[in-house]
């Protein structure tokens, strides 16, 4: 019995006409024979969860750097929460849950230590610029498995690349991850900000609390239901315009009063420049970078990109360890 073929048959019969079917994947850069148990997207999901980059996410910042408490989100828990929201939507809309999950689990693999502060620091010193979505693709195509990459399918890589900002994923599953990422980080970062005592529910935009709900659970549930109601049997992922405006107003509030707010800025000042100093150090001491990264330079990648590969892959604690080690000599 070929389980993969049975799964592909089920997808053809049950999925929305707008879903991405495993059998219709555009494939991988390096051809691989299909296996008899898992579909191509199931294999991608498993490759991501077994990768070293995925495991390191547990020690990378989501919003708060080295928080004083055990219940704050990390980049790993954020990733799992995005996956959960996106999978719920995929099942409700009869889209490909496996593809959705693979994109969600891989979307932040290239994120720096210290969250968006670290991304900003590397972007300011890198000759090529640095964006975590592009680095996530580089991780799965080049960095993982000692330079062999994970050889993921086109659809998964497309979803990872385009999850950020104004990117336009070419699949509905990719669009699900894109909106699920925003829903997750806005609502869960509110939880962490409340836990840290840097804001209260009364500080939030009044209509976002009144319309979307006073708790993260209620807001997420409301947004998921709205997307399902407006996207069912359509070739798009749609949030009702009035709801979208309220949600983006809440997101704007988070940027102004939390992400760029006084309390987090104090924290950021403590770690601002750490990755810049590491970059400058390794630019002058290139042979201090492990051989598995140097080999990419020998194979044609430029020096700047190899340095960013190494630094972006660090966890918060390893970056601080390396920083303390070089302070005495640089």
Structural key phrases:
Hypothetical protein af1432, mainly alpha, 330 residues
Q: What can you tell me about this protein's structure?
A:
With 330 residues, the chain is mainly α. It has a single domain (37-268), classed as Hypothetical protein af1432 (Orthogonal Bundle), CATH 1.10.3210. The chain is 62% helix and 0% strand. The protein contains 17 helices and no strands. Helix 2 packs parallel to helix 5 and helix 8 (154-161) packs across helix 9 (172-196). The chain is flat, with a radius of gyration of 21 Å.
Question: Termini distance?
Answer: 62 Å
The CATH class turns out to be Mainly Alpha
Number of helices: 17
What percent strand?
Answer: under 5%
- Low-pLDDT sequence parts: none
Q: Which structural class best describes the helix and strand composition?
A: mainly alpha
pLDDT averaged residue by residue: 94
Order of helices and strands: HHHHHHHHHHHHHHHHH
CATH superfamily: Hypothetical protein af1432
- What's the story with the biggest beta sheet? none
Total individual domains: 1
User: So what's the oligomer here?
Assistant: single chain
**What percentage of residues falls in helices of 4 or more residues?**
55-70%
- Identify the overall geometry: flat
> Which CATH architecture?
Orthogonal Bundle
* CATH fold-level label: Hypothetical protein af1432
Instruction: Work out the radius of gyration.
Output: 21 Å
Count of DSSP E strands? 0
